[in-house]
């Protein structure tokens, strides 16, 4: 199920991640098809054909993780939150989202500090620096931090209602 973006931040994040997903998937597929055809037709293959999918796969995964978080598609255990009164649920969920945002922000900063170190590591054939794949992880963590912060603000601004078995929760469930 595809959820419509909630505001311009969601829209920008969804657009970036969908573009990365489509581009990386298409390039990986195209390279694998071309390399397979070359192997069967000529008995040879492109030297770099195995390296590019390895470099693009982290981008594909991080874009998918961010979109899944944006759509609330990750596994969540909410029975403890459901047991709380509506007002307390709002406070706890807001606090949880802020903690999650801080953790993703910390991971982004830690990854940023490692970029200089891993920049010296090069892929064997194309000589692409390791900082390219670490950069995608850093960017993904930063986007996840932005989404968590946005969820925290949205949770705080929501009107708490008692949970209903059939309805979607008004206060976004904190999941991590």
Automatic annotation (TrEMBL):
It is found in: Cell inner membrane. One of its GO terms (molecular function) is transmembrane transporter activity. GO terms for cellular component: plasma membrane. Pfam families: DctQ (PF04290). InterPro entries: DctQ, TRAP_DctQ. Part of the tripartite ATP-independent periplasmic (TRAP) transport system. The complex comprises the extracytoplasmic solute receptor protein and the two transmembrane proteins. One of its GO terms (biological process) is C4-dicarboxylate transport. It comes from the Bacteria. Keywords: Cell inner membrane, Cell membrane, Membrane, Transmembrane, Transmembrane helix, Transport. Belongs to the TRAP transporter small permease family. Residues 28-157 form the Tripartite ATP-independent periplasmic transporters DctQ component domain. This is TRAP transporter small permease protein. It comes from Variovorax guangxiensis. The keyword Transmembrane helix applies. The chain crosses the membrane at residues 12-37, 57-80, 92-112, 132-149. It is a multi-pass membrane protein. The keyword Transmembrane helix applies.
């Amino acid at each position: 199920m595809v959820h419509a973006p909630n505001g311009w931040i969601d829209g920008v994040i969804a657009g970036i991640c969908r573009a990365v997903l489509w581009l990386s998937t298409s390039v990986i597929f195209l390279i694998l098809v071309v390399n397979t055809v070359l192997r069967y037709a000529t008995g040879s293959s492109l030297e770099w054909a195995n390296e590019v999918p390895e470099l693009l796969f982290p981008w594909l995964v991080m874009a998918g993780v961010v979109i899944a978080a944006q759509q609330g598609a990750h596994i969540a255990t909410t029975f403890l939150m459901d047991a709380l009164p509506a007002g307390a649920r709002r406070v706890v969920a807001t606090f949880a989202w802020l903690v999650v945002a801080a953790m993703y922000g910390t991971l982004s900063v830690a990854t940023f500090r490692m970029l200089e170190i891993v920049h010296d590591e090069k892929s064997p054939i194309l000589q692409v620096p390791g900082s390219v794949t670490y950069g995608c992880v850093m960017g993904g963590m930063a986007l996840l931090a932005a989404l968590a912060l946005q969820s925290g603000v949205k949770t705080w601004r929501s009107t708490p209602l008692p949970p209903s078995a059939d309805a979607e929760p008004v206060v976004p469930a904190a999941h991590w």
